[in-house]
Design goal:
Elements: H1 9-57, H2 62-82, H3 86-121
Helix pairs in contact: 1-2, 1-3
């Protein structure tokens, strides 16, 4: 059986900060992805509609109909993204990014302090 080694107060704080940083990083990445999707939605809609018109103007076969159905689903998602309030999207992205950076700063400060404490103890 493995011997149980209790964590120090610094190690507990460090692991909690690391978990919080990972959670905030995921939120910030999702917010940034949503921001990027919004910024590119009009170009994407243009490409979808252009491809759809090319399919319709040519001979329509089963593969073409399947692609049209797929394009319709993608267009529906793009239209939903376009309806979002850009200010709220940008605010969320900015706030999430700053919160993540603040947490990383505290995490790094704590690591430095732990290193200094270990150096003093030796």
């Amino acid at each position: 059986m493995k011997e149980y080694k209790p964590k120090s107060r610094d190690e507990i704080i460090l692991s909690a900060l690391e978990r919080e940083y990972e959670r905030l990083k995921k939120i910030a990445d999702q917010a940034k992805k949503q921001e990027d999707e919004y910024m590119n939605v009009h170009t994407r809609l243009f490409e979808i509609r252009k491809e759809g018109s090319e399919i319709v103007s040519g001979k329509v076969n089963k593969a073409g109909l399947a692609r049209l159905a797929e394009l319709a689903k993608i267009e529906k998602k793009c239209l939903a993204i376009r309806k979002l309030n850009i200010l709220k999207v940008l605010d969320k992205s900015f706030a999430a990014e700053w919160e993540c950076k603040d947490c990383l700063s505290v995490l790094n400060d704590h690591r430095v302090m732990m290193g200094m404490r270990k150096a003093i103890k030796k």
